[in-house]
């Protein structure tokens, strides 16, 4: 996956979600930072758990594919429930993230949680 030649918003230009390769690291960070306060800490925490778990070399390919598919949905500009709707806009995102966490939860270890805690501390403290 080539993440160096892409920019936030460049992935999936046709708004077609077809594979884990649709995940773009730049789009993930852009959306996560932009949505941090609106989405709520729980959504951001879960997305970071998945992101950091996917970065680990010992996470198997099937788990990374599941994670990147969920994160691609999170950054996808078109959702089942638009993110701009107050109080419910991120419920579909949270559902997708929760499903991915259920599938790959054994790869969310204390190191992943500490990385997430550190990143969230940078943003919210």
UniProtKB/TrEMBL annotation:
It is found in: Endomembrane system. InterPro entries: DUF1232 (IPR010652), UCP031804 (IPR016983). Residues 63-98 form the DUF1232 domain. Pfam families: DUF1232. It comes from the Bacteria. GO terms for cellular component: endomembrane system. It is a multi-pass membrane protein. Keywords: Membrane, Transmembrane, Transmembrane helix. This is Uncharacterized membrane protein YkvA (DUF1232 family).
């Amino acid at each position: 996956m080539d993440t160096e030649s892409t920019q936030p918003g460049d992935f999936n230009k046709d708004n077609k979600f077809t594979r884990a390769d649709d995940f773009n690291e730049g789009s993930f960070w852009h959306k996560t930072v932009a949505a941090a306060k609106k989405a709520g800490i729980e959504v951001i925490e879960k997305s970071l758990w998945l992101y950091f778990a996917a970065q680990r070399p010992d996470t198997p390919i099937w788990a990374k594919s599941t994670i990147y598919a969920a994160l691609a949905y999170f950054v996808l500009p078109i959702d089942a429930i638009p993110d701009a709707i107050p109080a419910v806009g991120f419920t579909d995102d949270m559902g997708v993230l929760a499903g991915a966490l259920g599938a790959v939860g054994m790869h969310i270890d204390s190191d992943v949680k500490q990385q997430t805690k550190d990143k969230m501390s940078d943003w919210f403290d």
